[in-house]
Amino acid sequence: MFYHIALEHEILLHPRYFGPQLYETVKQKLYTEVEGTCTGKYGFVIAVTTIDNIGAGIVLPGQGFVVYPVKYKAIVFRPFKGEVLDAIVMQVNKVGIFADIGPLSCFISHHSIPADMQFCPTTNPPCYKSNNEDVVIHSGDEIRLKIVGTRVDASGIFAIGTLMDDYLGLYSFLFVILRREKIPMKRTN
Fold it and tell me: Which parts of the chain span the membrane according to its record (predicted)?
């Protein structure tokens, strides 16, 4: 899920940047240090939207460096158990499917893939095929999955997913089914 939240960060600035472009330098350094990072508490920081306040700098004694406290708002991506998301298949092997949901890596065990789908190692690239071969999932395909669990550590988030629920699986195949049933389909990410 995406959220727009208020965050804080401290920017450490070398004395060579002191001058008329000081605040622009602090802003640029904030963007480079924060965007694309992940915290266990808030998730992946996608983009800084506004910088609310750049506080007064505090000189570090004996060093000359200055620390600027910055308050800003950012869009963050934090996945939760039970959430249904669209993903890109990155790798298929006999133990399951590895997929990327933007910056999030997700693993789908072969136990969480429908029983009518079998791993086919002889095809190039390897894939999971349904018994009647109308559904084939291989790397590069777009799938819809459900998050069944997440592991959060200091530098990242990893998810475990499943395809064993209604309207989950190969995205192009789901589109055909939903069109046949006249159900509107919306992308989730």
Answer: 156-178
Tell me if 169 sits within 8 A of 114, measured CB to CB.
yes
The residue behind tokens 């609310």 is 52
Residues 6 or more apart from 163 whose CB is under 8 A from it? 108, 112, 113, 114, 143, 145, 146, 169
Q: Domain 2-77 carries which CATH code?
A: 3.30.1490.120
Nearest to 84 by CA among 6, 174, 181, 183: 174
Give residue-wise pLDDT tens across range 9-68: 999 999 999 899 999 999 999 999 999 999 888 999 999 999 999 999 999 998 889 999
Whole-angstrom Cα Rg for the chain: 22
Question: What are the structural domain ranges in the chain?
Answer: 2-77, 84-181
The token pair that represents 9 in the structure block: 């960060």
pTM beyond 0.85: the answer is: no
Q: Helix count (H) and strand count (E) of the chain?
A: 2, 14
- C-beta of residue 66 within 8 angstroms of C-beta of residue 15: yes
Which amino acid appears at position 131 of this protein? N
pLDDT in tens, 126-150: 999 988 888 899 999 999 999 999 9
